[in-house]
Each structure stands twice: as C-alpha cells, then as structure tokens.
Amino acid sequence: MNNAQLIPIIAATNNAYAQHCAVMAASLLSNTADPTRIRLHILDCGLSDAEIGRIHQTCGLFGGSVEFHHVDADIIRRLPAANHTSATYARIFVGSILPTNLDRTIYLDSDLVVQNDIIELFNWNLQQKPIASARDFSNTGAERLANSPSTYFNAGVLVIDLQYWRSHSIEEHITKYLIETEDDTQFADQDALNVMFSGNWTELPPRWNAQLGVYTTRPRRWERQGFKATDLKEALRNPAIIHYINNSKPWLFRSNHPLKFLYWKYLKSTPYSNYRYPDFN
Q: Which of 22, 50, 48, 32 is nearest to 112 (CA)?
C-alpha cells in the first residue's frame, strides 16, 4: 500500500447530525500525524448549504479535505423505516457512491470521537476478510439473529474492502435482505451487515470502538462473553475511538458518559462552538 496515498474516510449525515459529524472530523484530523493525507467523503443525506459550509470549514481548519456525495432519497425511501436516522442506510451504498479507484475505506458513525491516528486503522491487516469491525457491547443484537454474542459486531466503525464490496454485490444483497425481513430487522443495516458477513470479518480490539459498556459494566461480564481482559483494560485506559451509543450522546445534558467532555473539547474548534445543551433547564 502506497504510504503517500490519500486516506478515504466515510461518514453519512443529515442536518440533524451535521454538528456531530463536524466534531468527529475535528477529532479525527487533530489526532492524525499528517491531516493533509485525510480525505473525508461525506454521504449527504439531506444537508443544507449552510451545514455543508460548516463541515467544509472544520476540515479546512485542520488541513484535511472533504468531498460531499449526494445520496438519492428515493433509494433510502424504498428501505424499511430505520430505528435511528435514515442516514444509517447510506453506508450500504459506499461501493457505488465512492470513486471506483478506491479499494479500501474506513466508515465512521458521526456520534464518536477519534483519539488515535486513523492511518493506523486504515492499514489494519484484514486477514483476507472483506471488513474489520469491533464486537458490539450488547447481547441483544446476537439474540435477534440467534447468534453467539462473539459473532455480532457494531457497525459504527468499519474498515471496508471496497473491491470485495463491489465484486460481491453487497449493496444488492443487503437491500434485498432488508426489504424481505422488514418486520424482523430492528437495527436496520447493522443486523443486515452481520448477516451478510457472518463468519467473514476480522475483529478489531474494542479500543477501536469503545462503547458505553466499557465504562458502565463490570469487565468480568464481558470476559465471560469472550473479551480478553487485556483488551478491555486497554479500551478503558486508552480508547482509540469513543463511540457515544444509546443514551450516552454527549450533546445532551442527561448523557451519562464519563468521557463526554471530549466531545465538547473538539466542538470548540468547529463553527458550532456556541452550541448549548437543548435539554438543560
């Protein structure tokens, strides 16, 4: 792999999550040794010109570059209503949206902050698998699919082999699965991705997608589910990516996340720095 190549990073957002996407970008770029190598590809699921401008401005402040790709709303509308924002579906279509000369990318949710150099993750050994991801800190996903908890990953951070994605028609297969299982798919594409890549993904250490369970649940519970004690300690002490899942959203006053201050740290370096808690009274 050419060490001087641009590193493509994908995120999907709309107006509602534009601020959080900008915070994610600020954290990503400020912790990268050479931010000029980072090229953000934002899947535009309903962004106003003003929000596009603010994300552009954020990336420019740190020396990174950004490109926006419009996602056809008609494509999203034919899929089942998402449990979260409909932008969650956009990552399904990375193979056809991104330039065909890209053969690998990293997908990141917008509700996270990056604390390590993302280039380390980009160069991760996929071990001839099509994706790399970290396990989900929950039993519910695996239970929905009647799987072992050790086989269900969280789709908020993905290293993706785009050549495989395209050559194996992943978009078409996931779309078909979602339409056929509309009544059974609670977490939309995350469940579908787990079905599609069952037994065919490389596991990332939990520090690359440190979810709330790392901080709120005794490690012994996760050890019983197959997590290594050393990996859990590393995720707790030195998280590379902090993923604010469920009720831990740091932009809300009621957030119970012990590291929500990091969100506010990076927020200060974006055009959204005047933001205040909407639920504080």
A: 22
Task: Identify the helix (H) or strand (E) that includes residue 41.
Answer: strand 38-44
Give per-residue pLDDT as tens, 245-265: 988 999 999 998 999 999 999
Q: Which of 80, 1, 4, 64 is nearest to 29 (CA)?
A: 64
Exposure class string for 214-248: b at 16+ Cβ within 10 A, else e: bbeeebeebeeeebeeebbebbeeebbbbbbbeeb
The residue to which tokens 């990174």 are assigned: 64
d(CA 135, CA 154): 6
Average pLDDT, the chain: 90
- Separation of alpha carbons 90 and 103, rounded Å: 18
Looking at 62-187, list the stretches that DSSP marks H as alpha helix, in order from N- to C-terminal side: 73-77, 94-97, 118-122, 140-144, 162-167, 170-180
* Tokens encoding 272: 């959204």
| CA neighbor of 53 nearest in space, from 89, 39, 263, 61 | 61
Sheet holding 153-161, edge to edge: 65-70, 38-44, 7-13, 104-108, 153-161, 131-135, 202-204
pTM of the shown model: 0.93
How is residue 93 annotated by DSSP? G
Six-digit token pair at 253? 């006053």
